[in-house]
Amino acid sequence: IEKTAFVTRLRTIKNEIVTIPNSFIMSSQTVNYSSSARSYGLIIHSEVTIGYDTPWRQVHQLLIDAAKATSGVMPEPAPSHPKPFVLETELQDYYPCYQINAYIKEADQLSQIYSDLHQNIQDYFDKAGVEILSPHYTAFRNGNASTIPKEKPATD
After folding, report:
1. For the CA atoms of the chain, what is the radius of gyration?
2. How many helices (H) and strands (E) in the chain?
3. CA 102 remoteness from chain centre
4. Are 44 and 101 in contact (CB under 8 A)?
5. 90 and 133 Cβ atoms separated by less than 8 Å
6. Rounded to an integer, what distance in angstroms lies between the CA atom of residue 130 and that of residue 33?
7. What is the DSSP string of 94-151?
8. What is the pLDDT of residue 35?
9. pLDDT score of 37
10. Most C-beta atoms within 10 A of its C-beta, which of 70, 119, 124, 152?
């Protein structure tokens, strides 16, 4: 919103005004997401964890369908903008971690697009009867004695 000899002032998508010293801008890497998004597209991504009992192909399709249904997401592939895609980023003990990736052009709508994407993910998984949860297992004591020693061994 303002450039002077010493500072640059920006308005964030949350309407916050940020003052950045020009010396900082000149001595570090800066990315103009708005310009990049219009020219090349901006990839948004979000992660969910689903239990191993749900087939991964089903999870991939649900995430892709939810992304395509999200306003602001580019559903059609183009040379520099592939269609939404899923990466499996982790295989934890009890669940894999899925990351949906999609291109957008309007960086100023980022928060709303994320909100809509998350709502669509919930709706699509609910319609398919797939719970969005990270299963964990709990050990219940059955009355057996604790495995913690009652007394510390004597040290010499």
Report:
1. 24
2. 4, 6
3. 11
4. yes
5. no
6. 34
7. S-EEEEEEEEES-GGGHHHHHHHHHHHHHHHHHHTT---------PPP-SPPPSS-SS
8. 66
9. 66
10. 70
Cβ atoms within 10 Å, residue 75: 14
Counting every residue, how long is the chain?
156
Assigned token pair, 60: 């991939």
Alpha-carbon span 69 to 3, nearest angstrom: 39
- Three-state DSSP class for 71? coil
- Give the chain's residues under pLDDT 50: none
Instruction: Indicate the SS3 state at residue 18.
Output: strand
Q: Nearest Cα to 118, choosing from 71, 151, 153?
A: 71
Give pTM, 2 decimals.
0.72
Q: Phi/psi at 74 (nearest 5 deg)?
A: -80, 105
Query: Nearest CA to 40 among 101, 110, 112, 103?
Result: 103
